[in-house]
Design a protein that fits this description.
Order of helices and strands: HHHHHHHHHHHHHHHHHHH
Shape: globular
Helix content: over 70%
Mean pLDDT: 85
Distance between the termini: 90 Å
Length: 501
């Protein structure tokens, strides 16, 4: 079965309709920087929750989880099991903290704790991370579209980026959140449709799917051993905990969502709803990968030999779904990428305004100047994201290199933030030293895989799995800062005691 005119109609109706709906907020919402960045704190709880869910999901999840489950087992699902802990910490610690600080910037708090250097450092790291994220999402979104539609990859990157940028510019955060919510619903429907069709398309019925999967150990969550060199259950769980603490605790994308609700209680409900919703949806994704394995094991003639695991799901979408549903599922995949890019553009503009333009201005920034800054930054970030996607398409290894850099930046951010929250009397010099040592640890672990076996530096190669990079980097920053603070206080106490005596 090939893509038909009906599939094109369904696809463009959904994607075009969502984009036009986002643009309509230019006429429906209030104008001003407060509306553009936080919707003046008036968005419904369920909408914000769905937007948090859609922000978390991307084209990486939509294609990556089924591809990994098809190739191996349900080990990637373990990542989701850490979300309840991360969302609970967000509800108990981070959301009340940000609401009390009453700043739409996630990094205003760091200036209060360590000075402007910390706020500036983390904001710059975050902007660089977002550029990597936008570019990679656009590229990973374009590749399956090229496979399914046959469109030019560069053209898909450009037009997807432009369409997302337009409604993000016109509607602000209200447009982003509402379109995210709609896109999240489309995504869930598309995933459920695929799972059901695969289940009931087995030649001998649904039971055959589970028999084949069980025989190949496809439901395994990974090894429960103590090894730190492979993605065991425990390694993935700890990795997921740190990444999700970063997402729900310090990521501007999420923090900005916390400020769009009417109260702290509603922000907590939105976060718990959006975060916990990802668990069953990610379960559906890994189930789809397992179902694809069973389906094509039972009917191998339907899948071309040598098809890469990450291309099996796109192949099924085009050749295995009924007419019309193919367009719906492709729209789901497209929506997953657009929602992530839109949120990233808006949060980048917010950071530039709050952490740089307003903070460094010698006089009060007018509302007109604030809006110009938001519009200009959104345009520049969107354009740079498109360029990044095009560069990643043309240069081998750029995608992997950028994700390594993103790991370095984000690890430093999380460690510094945890240090500020837990340790109340950290000196700035101690915080700087802790961050430097943490970044060196992260850089060492991130770049170790690039050291060849014959290199004289091979003895310095990290033996740990790359998933543990953010874990050890964050831990080093926190532990070093904590110990320096403890020793400093003890030294000061002993000095004061000697003066008294």
């Amino acid at each position: 079965m090939e893509i038909t005119l009906l599939d094109y109609v369904v696809f463009f109706l959904f994607v075009g309709g969502v984009a036009l709906f986002g643009c309509s907020f230019f006429f429906r919402s209030r104008r001003g920087s407060a509306a553009f960045t936080a919707a003046e704190g008036n968005l419904p709880t369920w909408v914000v929750g769905m937007s948090i869910f859609a922000t978390f999901v991307s084209s990486i999840s939509f294609l990556g989880l089924p591809g990994d489950a098809y190739k191996s087992n349900w080990n990637p699902f373990v990542f989701s099991l850490s979300i309840p802990i991360a969302t609970w910490l967000a509800a108990k610690v981070f959301i009340p903290l940000y609401r009390n600080v009453n700043s739409v910037s996630a990094y205003h708090y760091l200036e209060q704790r360590f000075g402007y250097w910390a706020r500036c450092y983390v904001a710059v790291c975050y902007l660089l991370t977002l550029l990597a994220r936008i570019g990679s999402i656009l590229l990973l979104l374009a590749l399956p579209q090229h496979t399914m539609f046959g469109w030019d990859v560069a053209s898909i990157i450009v037009w997807t980026g432009v369409a997302t940028l337009v409604y993000t510019l016109l509607g602000g955060i209200a447009a982003v959140v509402w379109t995210d919510a709609i896109q999240g619903i489309i995504l869930i429907v598309g995933a459920i449709v695929c799972a059901l069709i695969l289940t009931f398309s087995m030649p001998e019925g649904p039971a055959q799917l589970f028999e084949i999967a069980a025989a190949h150990d496809k439901f395994s969550l990974g090894s429960f051993g103590a090894s730190l060199t492979e993605p065991t259950f425990w390694v993935v769980l700890v990795y997921g905990l740190f990444v999700n603490m970063q997402n729900y605790g310090i990521d501007q994308n999420y923090v900005q969502h916390y400020m769009t609700t009417r109260s702290t209680a509603e922000a907590v409900k939105s976060t718990l709803f959006g975060g916990l919703l990802y668990i069953p949806v990610s379960l559906i994704f890994v189930y789809i990968g397992t179902a694809l394995f069973a389906y094509y094991t039972a009917r191998p003639e339907l899948l071309p030999a040598g098809t890469p695991s990450d291309q099996v799901f796109p192949w099924f979408i085009v050749h295995g779904l009924p007419t019309g549903l193919t367009g719906l599922v492709i729209a789901s995949l497209f929506s997953a990428g657009m929602s992530t890019v839109a949120t990233s553009i808006n949060s980048s503009a917010t950071i530039v305004l709050t952490d740089f333009a307003k903070r460094l201005a010698k006089s009060e920034v007018t509302e007109r100047r604030s809006m110009k800054t938001l519009y200009a930054t959104s345009f520049v970030v969107g354009a740079l994201g498109i360029v990044m996607g095009l560069l990643m398409m043309r240069i081998d290894g750029v995608l992997d290199a950028w994700w390594k850099l993103a790991s370095i930046f984000s690890g430093g951010m999380l460690g510094l933030f945890l240090l500020g929250v837990v340790c109340r009397r950290v000196r700035r010099a101690h915080a700087v030293l802790a961050v430097v040592l943490g970044l060196l640890t992260i850089a060492w672990m991130s770049l170790s895989p690039l050291i060849n076996e014959g290199s004289p530096f091979y003895v310095l190669r990290s033996p740990l799995h790359t998933y543990l990079t953010i874990v050890f980097g964050t831990t080093v920053i926190f532990v070093v800062g904590f110990l320096l603070t403890a020793f400093s206080r003890r030294f000061d106490s002993e000095t004061e005691h000697k003066k008294v005596n």
